[in-house]
């Protein structure tokens, strides 16, 4: 596949230490998977295979990085040192041997060919926030607003609680409580103005 000129521009615009590292990784990806496509995603070079994300690379002030999209399945043991599977790459010496790198690229391609999707750890739900006393008092006097509030999913209740709790001045807090009760009476979520109709 042809190389994306935007990736050429990205590499050319990086620090001198990073250019050979990025060029080497790019060449190894193409050697291991001739059908790989290049793109720019999240402002960094990305490699796609059959329309799915395969890997990406980036350069920063003092290091470069390379990461497979299916990071749990293709772990190398250097995760957490920096973005990607190889930690902080400061020189070509920080990279694995070309054959090993290409084998990992082929493994990533095989996972896509096999229909395997990246497994992401499930995020634990955020705990329920305590209702600010001012809102609790206002809701106690308004059954319709209380019914709406308690009927909302936890995330919607959290938005109201955070919005009111973050107010610094008592006047601001009182205004937000009044608005919240009015909106809840009308069945509206906290950010109702931004929801599509």
Automatic annotation (TrEMBL):
The domain of life for this entry's organism is: Bacteria
Looking up SUPFAM superfamilies in the UniProt record yields:
YdhG-like
- Pfam name, any one: OmdA
Q: YdhG-like domain: which residues?
A: 19-108
Q: InterPro entries, per this entry?
A: YdhG-like (IPR014922)
Protein name (database record): YdhG-like domain-containing protein
Q: Which organism is it from?
A: Sphingomonas psychrotolerans
């Amino acid at each position: 596949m042809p190389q994306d000129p935007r990736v050429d521009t990205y590499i050319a615009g990086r620090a001198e230490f990073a250019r050979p590292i990025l060029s080497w990784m790019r060449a190894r990806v193409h050697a291991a998977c001739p059908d790989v496509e290049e793109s720019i995603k999240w402002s960094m070079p990305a490699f796609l295979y059959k329309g799915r994300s395969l890997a990406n690379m980036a350069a920063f002030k003092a290091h470069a990085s390379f990461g497979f999209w299916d990071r749990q399945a293709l772990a190398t043991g250097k995760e957490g040192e920096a973005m990607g599977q190889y930690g902080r790459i400061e020189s070509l010496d920080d990279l694995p041997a070309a054959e090993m790198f290409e084998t990992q690229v082929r493994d990533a391609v095989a996972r896509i060919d096999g229909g395997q999707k990246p497994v992401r750890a499930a995020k634990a739900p955020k705990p329920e926030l305590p209702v600010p006393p001012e809102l609790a008092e206002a809701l106690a006097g308004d059954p319709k607003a209380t019914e709406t509030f308690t009927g909302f999913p936890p995330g919607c209740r959290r938005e109201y609680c955070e919005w009111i709790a973050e107010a610094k001045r008592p006047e601001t807090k009182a205004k937000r409580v009044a608005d919240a009760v009015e909106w809840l009476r009308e069945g509206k979520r906290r950010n109702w103005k931004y929801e599509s109709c």
